[in-house]
Write a structure and sequence with these properties.
The chain is α/β, with parallel strands linked by helices. The protein contains four helices and five strands. The protein has a five-stranded parallel beta sheet with strand order 4-3-2-1-5, sandwiched between helices. Helix 1 runs parallel beside helix 2. The longest helix has 14 residues. It comes from Caminibacter mediatlanticus TB-2.
């Protein structure tokens, strides 16, 4: 199956929302599913090297996402949001190839068997 995860929230917002979404995506990928992650709004900070794990978090969400990406999870990040959203506006993504458009998200939505938002 093709799973599309759409993240919207700031990665370190005081909740486990992003962490739980990444854990589910990783689990499904490890089961052999086609997993795609699209970051939009403030979640885009998750794809920036400049963001550091707060001391009160026990999981490095950026490192977790990078590992998943390097292991074959497909990742795209809103290009417009890069300058508009997140704490680190205008900072580059850890890989420029992941920059995407709303058209890319629409395509992934059409191709997905299931869409999950966090």
């Amino acid at each position: 199956m093709k799973f599309l995860f759409i993240f919207n929230h700031q990665p370190y917002d005081g909740s486990d929302l992003t962490w739980n979404g990444l854990r589910l995506a990783k689990n499904l990928h490890n089961r052999g599913h086609d997993v795609r992650i699209f970051l939009i709004s403030d979640s885009i900070d998750l794809a920036r090297d400049c963001i550091k794990k707060p001391e009160n978090y026990d999981n490095d969400l950026v490192a977790m996402l990078k590992e998943m990406y390097n292991n074959g999870v497909k990742l795209k990040v809103c290009g417009i949001c890069q300058a508009r959203c997140g704490i680190y506006k205008n900072e580059p993504y850890f890989d420029e190839k992941i920059k995407a458009t709303m058209n890319d998200l629409a395509n992934w939505c059409e191709e997905a068997d299931k869409i999950i938002t966090f």
